[in-house]
Every structure is written in structure tokens, then in C-alpha cells.
């Protein structure tokens, strides 16, 4: 079955560009478009998409508020679309329940990969923007240093969390730690369960907020 997508952006050209990219894929169908957050909520209700691609800054209702309202809606995964001048809104969108974010100038294959990933229940953070985004804004978030939840992790689960915080995929973590990808996937699932986190995006935020990863720390 096709992955059903709604695209929300107040710029018609941007919506058309996303539609063209996605509809070139045989397993993806754009079932609706929206010009603002309120329209996006209506499209989600009427079209029942698997994925909502939504711009952050829009009239009437922005993507941040729309993501927050959709947080408890089963079956739809929200990907925030942004430019770097709106980074603080992206961070808040992730905290509000978005499961990933993309830059507006992301290459077509990354947009397609993101839609497929979140439709399968994963979360996507583009590696090249993860560090710039979180270094700037997580450092300003309330500190949770020494969170006791970290003590529940095994050393390998901690290594996997570090890999996720660095923006690595399961395959990249497996290669880095010399493990099978299936083993890494199991570690990820156990780590998320122990920390009470819903997805990889929340895991990255947790790693920064607890000081496991520090702003400016080089990627090992």
C-alpha cells in the first residue's frame, strides 16, 4: 500500500515542489495540501495520511501548534520543514511531538527517505543539521544532569544512545560498534523503553539535556 502524505506550506511553489518529488515514487501518494496549520489539521482529519510534512511558519496557525495538536493523533507522523533562521521553532516542534525535521533545500532523496522512515515508525534527524540545531538550543534548555534513568542503561545501550545523538543510522551505529544491525535495533528498542522515550528524536534531546552529549563535542 502507498504511503499517504499531506504537504502543508503557505508557499504554493514549495508545496508543488514537494508534491512532485514525492509523487515520483511508486510507494508514495500525496493525498492533500494545506496552506496553513488549521487547514493541515482539517486535511489530516479528512484524508487520514500516514505522514504530514509541515512548514513551521505559516499564517493562522503555525506548524508548531499543529504538531502539538496532532501529538496524540494515532496514525500520522509529523515532519517539520524549516530553514536555519527558524531553528528554535524546530526544536520546540520536536518536543511537541514531531518525529523529524528537514531543511527546505534538502535533496529529493532525503525527503523521500524521511517520509518512508517515519511511515515505518522510525524518526529522522538529518545528521548535518542535528549538531547545529541541538548545540545552539539544547544548551539553553533546563539541565537534567545526572538523570537517574541513565543508570538503567547497559554500556552498549549507552553507546547506541551516543550513536543516535551523533545522527547515525542503525547501520552506521552497527558499523561503528562492530555489531549486527539487528542487534543495534534491539538495543535501540530497549534503550527507548528504559528511558520512556517515543523515538530517536526524543533520544537525541535526552542525550543533550542530560549532558551525555555536550554542545560542541566532536563526533567520534
From TrEMBL:
Residues 146-211 form the HTH luxR-type domain. Keywords: DNA-binding, Phosphoprotein, Transcription, Transcription regulation. Pfam families: GerE (PF00196), Response_reg (PF00072). It comes from the Bacteria. The modification 4-aspartylphosphate is found at residue 55. The keyword DNA-binding applies. Residues 4-119 form the Response regulatory domain. GO terms for molecular function: DNA binding. The keyword Cell membrane does not apply. InterPro entries: CheY-like_superfamily, NreC/VraR/RcsB-like_REC, Sig_transdc_resp-reg_C-effctor, Sig_transdc_resp-reg_receiver, Tscrpt_reg_LuxR_C, WalR-like. CDD domains: LuxR_C_like, REC_NarL-like. This is DNA-binding NarL/FixJ family response regulator. It comes from Conexibacter arvalis.
Amino acid at each position: 500500500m502507498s504511503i499517504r502524505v499531506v504537504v502543508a506550506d503557505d508557499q504554493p511553489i514549495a508545496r508543488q515542489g514537494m508534491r512532485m518529488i514525492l509523487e515520483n515514487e511508486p510507494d508514495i501518494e500525496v493525498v492533500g495540501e494545506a496552506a496553513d496549520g488549521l487547514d493541515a489539521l482539517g486535511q489530516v482529519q479528512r484524508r487520514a495520511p500516514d505522514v504530514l510534512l509541515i512548514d513551521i511558519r505559516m499564517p493562522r496557525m503555525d506548524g508548531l501548534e499543529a504538531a502539538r495538536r496532532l501529538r496524540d493523533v494515532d496514525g500520522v507522523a509529523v515532519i517539520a520543514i524549516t530553514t536555519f533562521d527558524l531553528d528554535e521553532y524546530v526544536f520546540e516542534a520536536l518536543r511537541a511531538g514531531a518525529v523529524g525535521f528537514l531543511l527546505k533545500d534538502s535533496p529529493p532523496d532525503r525527503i523521500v527517505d524521511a517520509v518512508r522512515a517515519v511511515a515505518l515508525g522510525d524518526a529522522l534527524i538529518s545528521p548535518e543539521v542535528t549538531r547545529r540545531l541541538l548545540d545552539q538550543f539544547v544548551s539553553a534548555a533546563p539541565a537534567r544532569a545526572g538523570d537517574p534513568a541513565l543508570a538503567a542503561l547497559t554500556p552498549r545501550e549507552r553507546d547506541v544512545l551516543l550513536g543516535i545523538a551523533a545522527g547515525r543510522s542503525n547501520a552506521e551505529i552497527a558499523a561503528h560498534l562492530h555489531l549486527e544491525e539487528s542487534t543495534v535495533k534491539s538495543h535501540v528498542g530497549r534503550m527507548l523503553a528504559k528511558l520512556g522515550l517515543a523515538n530517536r528524536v526524543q533520544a537525541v534531546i535526552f542525550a543533550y539535556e542530560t549532558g551525555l552529549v555536550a554542545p560542541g563535542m566532536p563526533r567520534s
